[in-house]
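Cross-check.
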Amino acid sequence: MFTLTLALLGLSLGLVANAFPTQRPENGKNWVVIVAGSNGWHNYRHQADACHAYQIVHRNGIPDEQIVVMMYDDLAANEKQPGPRDVTPDNFLAVLKGDSASTKWGTGKVLKSGPNDHVFVYITAHGAPGLLAFPEDELYAADLMAAINYMHDKKKYKKSVFYIDASGSGSMMTKLSDDIGVYATTATNSTELSNACYYDEKRNTFLGDWYSVNWMENSDVEDISMETLMTQFKIVQSNTSHVMKFGNETLANMKVMAFQGNANARPNLPMTLKPVADPGLTISTDVPLEILKRNSSNTDNSLLRSHVNVRDHLKQKMLKVVTLVTGFESEYQKVLSEKMDLTQHQCYKTAVTSYKKHCSIWHTTVYENYLLDLYLLFNLCGKIYRPECIWATIEKVCTEIDETPL
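Predicted model, tokenized:
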């Protein structure tokens, strides 16, 4: 009986070990990629988030040579921040793949991770269904999935965790497989808008994004050598709207320290933070307008009127594209109200490129809120209308001579 008991005990311990992954990379390292995917003073919060994330992982023992930070360098430079670089989708994907030869500008630093390593990736940016908007180009969900699968096939990690803060960020991870050792959480589902927070009267801009602030402040105040990723997820979820999780949820039983710190190092002492009574939550696409409203130096309403007029003008352009492509009221209403499953990735890429070229440049303060209308192009391609018809209609509608109400 005693022998049987020991055998059963050994079996149960083995099952527990398999159910709860080891916390430390065996003979491996911890690597981190941090991306602020925007530029401009009104997007100050994205770079502030990235700097905060860097301070967390650096404070918890990950050396700078194992941290890659991608930030646009149009804010005040800080020599303590490691390696600001040109923030493009191609550079980001090259960083993940460890392809230094394909990076342009910046330090050329890429992930040099291997089969025993843990990789933590944090991205804060603007988003829309199926894409993240970088300063000059877009990172599409299909390309991100291809890069993650490449990393898995080439044994670039043992376990990996992604945190993504952007509107529609859930759409970036819907195709994430649960058998490649990757766990991801996102600020929103596939269609919801993210929130900015902590408006600063002195700087006239927002200092954080709500999902990001929640996970980072949690990492600041908790002993992350004891707290699990699932606990952190539930804490963030309790304070936000539709935070989502994807991939291998078994990894969520691991400690936060296993990815946001050096699991072989002594954990840093938790901080004490003062509670914020009113975080001033503002929908991300309304941030430029809210800044204009709050700016005490804005003595007249001309800038506000211009912003609203251009927003409405471009909205009508997009609706006209949908009207002409669908041709029928019933189909028009479906495109406006449903969430399609995108299979025509090239159709969507080309439609977005055409819309940006002919209708809008949303990387400026005035136009960034029109990312929320891209779900209509997403749906048009999801309905499998002829791509050539969609592209031609966008060009026709957007190049019509009319009076833009600036």
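The two ends are 86 Å apart (CA to CA). The longest strand covers residues 118-128. Passed to J.P. for a second look.
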